[in-house]
Amino acid sequence: MFKENFHTHTRYCDGKNTPGEMITSAINKGFTALGFSGHAFVKDFFCDWCMTEEKSLKYIDEINKYKKKYKDIIDIYCGTELDYFCTELPGEYDYTIGSVHYLHESGVYPAVDSSLREQHEAADRYYGGSLIEYAVRYFELIGGIAEKLNPDIIGHFDIVSKFNEGDCAFDTGDKKYINAWHDAVDRLLPYNIPFEINTGAIARGVRKTPYPALDIADYIQSKGGFFIVTSDCHDAACLDFFFDEVKEMYSKYNIVNFSDILKNKQ
Ligand SMILES: [Zn+2]
Ligand SMILES: [Zn+2]
Q: Which run of H or of E encompasses 35?
């Protein structure tokens, strides 16, 4: 358990390392599987951390070469992290993660996970200055992601709370906020795909706990949902970041190996 990670980024998008460096790190950590999930091409607007069409094809080519090279040592998978607003996907992937990184209002795509300042600007412009209303809009999108993109994994379910450590920006106990994520979970559960326990924001020093918050994880678990553990890794040293802590914090939750799901799918 936890000797794998299917949410990782390389220099092909906004990661720090090459795929080869990531694989070396995974082998050194005793991993049995490693999945790459480069940010998928977005056609409708400029996304500086997403792969271009051309880069996507080179990425697939390189990862597939490594698959063969390391097949006796570690299972390598070529996936991609889709954004809600991805409309075209160049190439073939072993799996996809469905994530919301942007909202969409009046032809503009405000970024959700760039900064609190950007969240406030969008809230002021489109949601009457309310970060709760902003979050409600976010959960409408993530709640619809399985229906729209049919991904294999739900990415960082409550990333809208990235800059809200200790409820410093808005109250996660607000009824509207709770209703919004309840609705989103309820819409996603019938698809029977795992939610991530994602430690990425801790590695970046922005959060102290993984996504999703424990009350959300409780709700998912109580409704029969299940989880995989990832570190949304942008740095080879952080491939298993906070995994030991997750083992303790989330010990009562139904956590599975994503590699088992993929093997059953094949
Ligand atoms: Zn993401
Ligand atoms: Zn990611």
A: strand 33-39
Two structure tokens written together for 40: 């998928």
Range of the structural domain that residue 80 is part of: 4-265
Nearest ligand, CA 156? 1
Distance 27 CA to ligand 2 centre (A): 21
Whole-number Å distance, alpha carbon 140 to ligand 2 midpoint, is 20
Global pTM value: 0.97
The pLDDT tens digits for 89-147 are 999 999 999 999 999 999 999 999 999 999 999 999 999 999 999 999 999 999 999 99
pLDDT at 266 over 80: no
Ligand nearest to the CA of 15: 2
Distance 148 CA to ligand 1 centre (A): 17
Alpha helices (H) along the chain: 19-28, 53-69, 116-126, 131-143, 145-149, 175-188, 200-203, 214-222, 243-249, 258-265
- CB half-sphere exposure, 233, CA atoms < 13 A: 30
Q: What is the CATH number of the domain that holds 47?
A: 3.20.20.140
Ligand in closest contact with the CA of 233: 2
Q: Which ligand is nearest to the CA of 10?
A: 2
Matching residue, tokens 């949410």: 7
Q: Does position 33 have pLDDT exceeding 80, yes or no?
A: yes
Q: Ligand 2 center to residue 55 CA distance, Å?
A: 17
Confidence of residue 195 (pLDDT cuts 50, 70, 90): very high
Q: Closest-lying ligand to the alpha carbon of 231?
A: 2
If one counts the domains in the chain, the total is 1
